[in-house]
Specification:
The complex is a heterodimer of chains A (426) and B (166).
Chain A (H helix, E strand, L loop, with lengths): L25 H6 L6 H7 L2 H11 L11 H6 L9 E7 L8 H8 L1 H15 L1 E8 L4 H16 L15 E6 L9 H8 L23 E5 H13 L1 H5 L2 E2 L2 E2 L1 E8 L5 E6 L4 H8 L11 E3 L8 E2 L9 H6 L8 E5 L5 H15 L5 H18 L7 H12 L7 H15 L1 H12 L1
Parallel strand pairs in A: 1-2, 1-4, 2-3, 7-11
Antiparallel strand pairs in A: 5-6, 7-8, 9-10, 9-11
Helix pairs in contact in A: 3-6, 5-6, 6-9, 13-14, 13-16, 14-15, 14-16, 15-16, 16-17
Chain B lengths: L9 H11 L9 H12 L4 H11 L3 H10 L11 E6 L2 H4 L3 H12 L12 E6 L11 E3 L2 E3 L4 H15 L3
Parallel strand pairs in B: 1-2
Antiparallel strand pairs in B: 1-3, 3-4
Helix pairs in contact in B: 2-3, 3-4
The complex binds 1,4-dihydronicotinamide adenine dinucleotide (NAI), flavin mononucleotide (FMN), iron/sulfur cluster and FE2/S2 (inorganic) cluster.
The site of iron/sulfur cluster has 14 residues of chain A, from helix 14 and helix 16.
Chain lengths: 426, 166
């Protein structure tokens, strides 16, 4: 790795080796530092030390909710007599998100190494990567990398001659967004439809086959090797307190150079879009910025200078979420985009909560008629009421995410909706 | 197909026996086994579902529930080339609907339909997780990023040439 031990010099962690040709091959990965520190961890660290370093690092879950990873690991009960499982969430379904894919296809050994370290800390014997079904290529790359790792005794029995043994299996989803929600993911991995469970109990206590289970996002796990190598303090000194480390942002929509960019936390939205993404396709200031995936509330031009941190985006009225930034310039038809997102959530609702099942259907139907100039006089009220009824009354956060685009449209651009309604009245 | 003609090969059965060992319970192997069935038989027919239920020792209802819940499991055969166009936000903002219209025109079918020769099925799908390459089209699960009407026309001709008479 070329990551600097001086936190001030660090600009990338997970993507450090991303551009190296053939990095997915074990021999190349090893030349570039993969698994270099693993023997030290397995031989000289113990569970308490690892969990402590991860806590000190301040890393928060990169899957979207931002829950402190070290804290989550410390909630796993020990000596229950049951196995503990580690599940990597590679479902990556939130519209706008495409970062985990690059880690998996270009540097799979980084993820595998992170999982071995996490598994060792948690006393895990069987670990799984749950990857969205569409990522067939990525699943194949991972399987090839895992095979190489087994052959090199980096996985399987007595890893590198130590007492620690761990199996790792790739499990493909099959096209259901809701399976990214961790309890739906667990149901799916048990061979069932992916319907979320009530939380609590959290998976840390009762998860896969009702055993203690840690679910972590790809990017979270891929950060673990650097945290252990350079130390929790090192990671805590990158970024901003309470928002430490680097973060991969997936930028899409109306920018000239869409793509994944890893930057230290606290970089501003404007810097990311102008310096990294080559600015907007049309105009100079975005009309809408969805900062954390389609489920997060919209921001507008006035928020363009916001630093990219969990805290600052929350202050601005949204969330950092999965770090998926969808940018829309003045040419975007916001009613059409909102209708498309409403369709997505209606299609993906698992249907077990009435407010979500009915609400997402309503939002889609009403947005559709508004888009097609067939709206009715009280449609704004209908949309508002339907959205407000969905939040906080359901088993999982999908319903809230479904309401976010509609509520944002009505909040910032009521005239766009009213304009369409006026058209229909003519 | 009837129940006795839908059978996994011996290699597949050996593979499945190994697979089951990787999970705490046999039902966890259901999704991977359904993928195998889809790969081997083209789609997952009722007889195939019955055979899989027997094989894993689970109730047919459990298999049905899973097959119908997940969009990537197909109970009907689709065209030899399944063209799946993402029309979600990132792709929509970069011309996905115009692309769909163009492809439908070129193929002479509507979204969700299969060409009469059984060569192409075109479908609209949700975010493919590759929005940096919008618009994204998956062809039998291979990603084509930054798709344009021209590259899609080319791809369709290439499939026609490769696929020959369906
Ligand atoms: N990456 C993607 O493709 C997507 C990401 N998301 C994100 O997912 C987020 C919501 O995720 P949820 O899992 O519903 O959030 P959550 O807040 O319920 O949980 C976050 C994590 O912390 C753990 N946790 C929280 N409290 C705990 C406790 N007391 N004990 C033990 N563990 C605890 C949970 O088990 C989970 O792993 C949204 O903010 C959204 O941004 C949503 C859709 C897709
Ligand atoms: C509808 C829904 C979909 C989700 N999809 C994903 C996903 O694709 N990937 C992911 O890592 N987390 C996803 N999450 C969040 C997970 O439930 C969970 O918080 C996360 O995997 C925990 O890992 P982390 O702490 O490392 O972020 C989703 C949550 C919801 C409510
Ligand atoms: S909120 Fe929606 S997706 Fe989540 S459990 Fe309820 S019905 Fe299913
Ligand atoms: S919106 Fe099309 S790949 Fe994400």
């Amino acid at each position: 790795m070329t990551i600097s031990s001086d936190p001030k010099q660090v600009t990338q962690i997970c993507f450090d080796r991303i551009n190296i040709p053939d990095q997915h091959k074990l021999s190349v990965a090893r030349e570039n530092g993969a698994y270099e520190f693993l023997p030290t961890v397995l031989k000289e660290f113990d569970s308490a030390k690892i969990i402590n370093e991860v806590k000190t690092s301040g890393i928060r879950g990169r899957g979207g909710a931002g829950f402190p990873t070290g804290l989550k690991w410390s909630f796993v009960p020990r000596n229950t007599g049951k196995p503990t499982y580690l599940l990597c969430n590679a479902d990556e379904g939130e519209p706008g998100t495409f970062k985990d894919r690059d880690i998996m296809r270009f540097d799979p050994h980084l993820l595998i190494e992170g999982m071995i370290m996490a598994g060792f800390a948690l006393g895990v014997r069987d670990a799984y990567i749950y990857i969205r079904g569409e990522f067939l290529h990525e699943a194949n790359v991972l399987n090839a990398a895992i095979k190489e790792a087994y052959d090199a005794n980096l996985l399987g029995e007595n890893i590198l001659g130590t007492d620690y043994s761990m199996n790792l299996t790739v499990h493909r989803g099959a096209g259901a967004y809701v399976c990214g929600e961790e309890t739906a993911l667990i149901e799916s991995l048990e061979g069932k439809p992916g319907r979320p469970r009530f939380k609590p109990p959290f998976p840390a206590v009762e998860g896969f086959y009702r055993c203690p289970t840690v679910v972590n996002n790809v990017e979270t796990l891929a950060t673990v090797p650097a945290i252990l190598k350079f130390g929790g303090e090192w990671h805590a000194s990158i970024g901003i307190p309470n928002n430490t480390g680097c973060k991969i942002f997936s930028v899409s929509g109306h920018v000239n150079k869409p793509g994944n960019y890893e930057v230290p936390m606290g970089t501003s939205l404007k810097t990311l879009i102008e310096d990294y993404c080559g600015g907007l396709q049309h105009g100079t200031v975005p009309k809408v910025i969805i900062p954390g995936g389609s489920s997060t509330p919209w921001l507008t031009a006035e928020h363009y200078d916001t630093p990219l941190t969990y805290d600052d985006l929350m202050k601005a009225g949204s969330f950092l979420g999965s770090g998926a930034i969808i940018v829309m310039d003045e040419t975007a038809d916001l009613v059409a985009v909102t209708r498309r997102l409403a369709h997505f959530y209606a299609h993906e609702s698992c249907g077990q909560c009435t407010p979500c099942r009915e609400g997402t259907g309503w939002l889609e139907r009403v947005m559709k008629r508004v888009e097609h100039g067939k709206g009715r006089g009280d449609d704004v009220k209908v949309l508002k009421e339907a959205s407000e009824h969905m939040a906080g009354r359901t088993i999982c956060a999908l319903a809230e995410g479904a309401a976010a685009p509609v509520l944002s449209l009505l909040k910032f651009f009521p005239e766009d909706v009213k304009g369409r309604l006026a058209e229909s009245a003519e | 197909m009837s129940a006795d003609t839908v059978r996994f090969s011996d290699e597949r059965l050996a593979e499945i026996a190994e697979l089951v060992k990787r999970y705490p319970g046999p039902q966890s192997a259901l999704m991977p086994v359904l993928y195998m069935a889809q790969e081997d038989f083209g789609y997952i027919s009722m007889p195939a579902q019955e055979m899989i239920a027997d094989l894993l020792g689970i109730h047919l209802m459990r298999v049905r529930e899973v097959v119908t819940f997940y969009t990537m499991f197909k109970e009907q055969p689709s065209g030899k080339y399944l063209l799946e166009v993402c029309t979600n936000a990132g792709c929509m903002l970069n011309g996905a609907y115009e692309l769909v219209d163009h492809m439908c025109d070129s193929l002479g079918i509507k979204l969700g339909e299969t060409t009469p020769d059984g060569m192409f099925t075109i479908a609209e799908v949700e975010c493919a997780g590759a929005c940096g390459g919008a618009p994204v089209v998956q062809v039998n699960n291979i990603y084509h990023e930054k798709a344009t009407p021209e590259t899609m026309d080319e791809l369709i001709s290439k499939c026609r040439a490769e696929g020959g008479e369906a």
